[in-house]
Amino acid sequence: MRTKEQKRNKGITLIALIITIIIILILAGITISAITGDNGIIGNAGKAKEESEIANEKEIVEKAVLQAMGNNKYGNIEENELQAQLDKETGEGKTDATDIENEFEVLFIDTNRYYTVDKDGNVGEVQEYIEDKYPGDITVGKDGETLDGQTEKTAYQIWCIEDLVEWTQNYSKYASSCIKLCTTLNFKSKLSYADSERRDYGDLNGNDNDGNTLMNEMTTGTGFRPILYFYGTLDGKFNNEYHEIKNIYINKEGTAGFIIAGNSSTVIKNLSISGEICSTNRAAGIISGDNVSRGMTIINCKNYANIKGKIMVGGICAWANNNVSVQDCENYGKIYIESVDYQYGGAGGIIAYGSGTIQDCYNAGEIYGNYICGGIVGTGESIEIKNCSNTGRIHSIGNYTSGGILGKHRGETINIINCVNEAIIGEESIGYAGGIVGEYIGVSYTTDRILNIYNCYNTGNIVSQNYCGGILGVQGLVSLSINLNIENCYSVGQIQGKYNGGIIGKLTGSDSRTTVTSSIKNTYYLTSSANKAIYEGNCTEEEQIESYDISYMKSESFCNMLNNNIGENTGWKNWILEEDSYPSFG
After folding, report:
1. H-helix or E-strand containing 472?
2. CA distance 357 to 326
3. Comparing C-alpha atoms, which of 310, 474, 328, 451 is closest to residue 382?
4. Of 22, 70, 421, 558, which has fewest CB within 10 angstroms of its CB?
5. pTM of the entire structure?
6. How many other C-beta atoms lie within 10 A of the C-beta of residue 57?
7. Which residues make Cβ contacts (< 8 Å) with residue 521, sequence separation at least 6?
8. pLDDT tens track for 367-382
9. Whole-angstrom Cα distance, residue 470 to residue 531?
């Protein structure tokens, strides 16, 4: 047996050894922080170990997916087979594979890391499953810190579906707060719930006979209950990562959307949403308002949801009233508006109807239905649409208007600058169709109307059984005065209507109640697209409206001419020319 003295001497020896090693490292130029810091030797070793584990896990998933697909005669992935192959690779109870409709999730139970697998077998990057220790309480952070929702640093935190349910049920309590979405949530994934089988919330989806499990309540019946009003800031960016809300499901009467109403204090940013949103009788959109989205600011939001409704249906906003500001937003979902004849309506990739500023936005979704449809805006009042583009198919059914950027102008002043349409517009419609704007018309003989289309182009085909124009379908009357200005624009899409204009389908002249002033300058169309620039009517001022063949419109000379026309117009984009293409924006 060793004496106390021997033990003490051994302890001293170990301490001395450690000190000696540290001194040697310091003499070699290696500091303590280089050893123990976040980027030190020990930290980097830990990161390397984690990266190796992640690479191994991903390889396991990829092997299991390939085997599962190989064992299916149709090459499909089945949940049971995928789990069986994972068990072969790791042993039973080490992983959990779940089919969440459009993809699978594979959770490694020991590490709390998971991977998504799409139906084609592609494995996504690693994601961390973070357990919410305080589900349904957004006033407590992940580590137990108290939050007051008053600043960005102390914003309320959303970590699970239960947190969203708390917000919807007590929306007035959080109406003016800062709120952050701290992780991606998927309504069809049990990993997004603290307990997807809990029943204590009762009936949330309008069906009290379906067992009332929380996931079922969120994904069937009327689904998720929208947040009725919100006047604070919602941010989908947390810890420098952007998060999503996936597979949201809303099917209800009245206005439908994740958030229904806001005002000039409302800021929604860095949020992506996918799923299904439907209003059976009113407006619908992600950030959707029925004359209540007043002055909201919406930044860097993306919609992947299919949205259906009546009166107003927008990929981002339905009724964007009182100068809403929408910036850097995108729509990829299908937008469908059901038959309804209502002057304050329409369907749009970004907003359905309204006023404000729409800037740097993009639509790739199909916009269709039995009413006015526009790639960016359905029906506009006083609005500026700048630096926006559309590649989604736009087609109104029946006797309604389709426009690549704006369906219909019915407000006071609308400016459309640096905008692009590259999609087919109109198709089976018997209404008007235009590459940039479908229809420009007033609604009262007591007001003045102005439409400015500057530095825009259309490459999509315009198809209708009525008037079609490469830039504007029809300009009508019903106003005290109508002022139309088109400058430095071109269209090369084929115009395939009953009445075809390379630039405008129909330009109605003045009458006893309406004075019309129209100016078209430095605007061009493809010779083979239409027989003349304006099918019907004459503008009051023309300056260089020309048609050219394909070779010239793809030439450097044509691109230079467009740039020379910009002059002192600040905010107009410069044009560039890529090989074998028409000029586009730099």
Report:
1. strand 472-475
2. 6
3. 451
4. 70
5. 0.89
6. 21
7. 485, 486, 487, 488, 541, 542, 543, 544, 565
8. 999 999 999 999 998 9
9. 12
